[in-house]
Amino acid sequence: MKNILVTGGAGFIGSAFVRYMVEKYPEYNIIVYDKLTYAGNMDNLLPVSDEPNYRFEQGDIADRETVRRVFNAHQIDTVVNFAAESHVDRSILAPDAFIHTDVVGVYILLDESRQHGVGRFLQVSTDEVYGDIESGFSKEDDPFLPNSPYAASKAGGELMVRSFHVTHGMDTVITRGSNTFGPYQYPEKIIPFFTTEAIDDRPLPVYGDGMQVRDWLYVDDHARGIEVALMKGVSGEAYNIAGEDQRHNIEVTKRLLSLLDKPDTLIKYVPDREGHDRRYAMNCDKLRALGWERQYTFETAIEATIRWYQTNEWWWRKIKTGEYLEFYKKQYEARLAAAE
User: Fold this and answer.
1) Is the C or the N end of the chain the one with fewer CB within 10 Å?
2) pLDDT, position 155
3) In what side-by-side order are the strands of the sheet with 172-177?
4) Cα separation of 32 and 6, whole Å?
5) What pLDDT, on the 0 to 100 scale, is given for residue 8?
6) Which helix (H) or strand (E) holds 285?
7) Which of these is catalytic: 34, 128, 197, 245?
């Protein structure tokens, strides 16, 4: 392992992994490959932009010619694939892009990896492939029951990875992360969305009754979990990366308002989104057996995250314009008009 291609490395979790790996492994060359869609942001990589073991290439994982050029130019021997369309709301409005990136793109990346003799291919996936979990905890060999176009596209990508392992003998590993939060997260996901809206005293559109349960994982813990799976994971296996801290969405919302010293009156209960899963929860004993443990509790991590958004308005204010505002109007204007 010497030349690691990190696809989607300018996104939220991908950039956290890049920053971590560039610093921890100066002997590895970390090559970021990112399409720079709305969620890809070069500002996320500023902390490592001058490091000698970091490189950046712009491109789409579904663009075979560009993928091939990058493989040849950098003699890639390892791939960690974060590249994905990842927002459930957007997948309901426009699922085409999700199939293009999360399924077709994964296939092309796998096929080029096979042809170039890549030693290990790690696919970053999500707990949402398991679907709605009424009770208990999802384990890695549980069936897939995706309930959104996003979750279905990620499940499709995973099955493509499995097929290349079985059919071609490729060395593949899959990770499935729970709801992740922290600095540099595009402000369409609940914590950065509500935090930045609350800073400006704008209403917070809480879906349904707000009692959906999510398992919260700090981004640095997620990045280290992927590193452990990359270095120690068994070929052909999948590993859950769980925060093991389940909270209702309304509880998270009220906690961030408290930390911001903002009133609960900003909360507006709006009509729920289609196919909204009620609960996610995963067992991560398998990854823990490889030596991973989370280092952050939800409470310490949410406090650090809120402080980051408060002190880094330069980062998110320029994002919340243009395309972002168009999405906001499509997703929330009518719902807020119907708010209780």
Assistant:
1) C
2) 97
3) 54-58, 29-34, 3-7, 78-81, 120-126, 172-177, 238-241
4) 5
5) 98
6) helix 285-288
7) 128
Determine whether 261 is an active site residue.
no
- φ, ψ for residue 121, nearest 5 deg: -125, 120
Which of 20, 150, 207, 239 does the annotation list as catalytic?
Answer: 150
Calculate the average pLDDT of the chain.
96
Q: What is the pLDDT of residues 278-314, one digit of tens each?
A: 999 999 999 999 999 999 999 999 999 999 999 999 9
Task: Give the mean pLDDT of 65-70.
Answer: 98
Q: Which of 127, 281, 276 is nearest to 215 (CA)?
A: 281
Q: Is 150 known to be catalytic?
A: yes
The residues spanned by each domain of the chain are 3-180+215-241, 185-214+247-274+298-332
Q: Provide the β-strand partners of residue 29.
A: 3
Q: What tokens appear for 281 in the block?
A: 């929860």
Is residue 130 annotated as a catalytic residue, yes or no? no
pTM: 0.96
DSSP 41: -
Predicted confidence at residue 340, as pLDDT, reads: 65
Q: Given CATH 3.90.25.10, say whether it is the number of domain 185-214+247-274+298-332.
A: yes
Q: Which of 85, 127, 197, 221 is catalytic?
A: 127
Per DSSP, 266 falls in state G
The per-residue pLDDT for range 116-145, each reduced to its tens digit, is: 999 999 999 999 999 999 999 999 999 999
Instruction: Return all residues near 122 (Cβ < 8 A) that are at least 6 apart.
Output: 78, 79, 80, 81, 172, 173, 174, 175, 226, 229, 230, 233
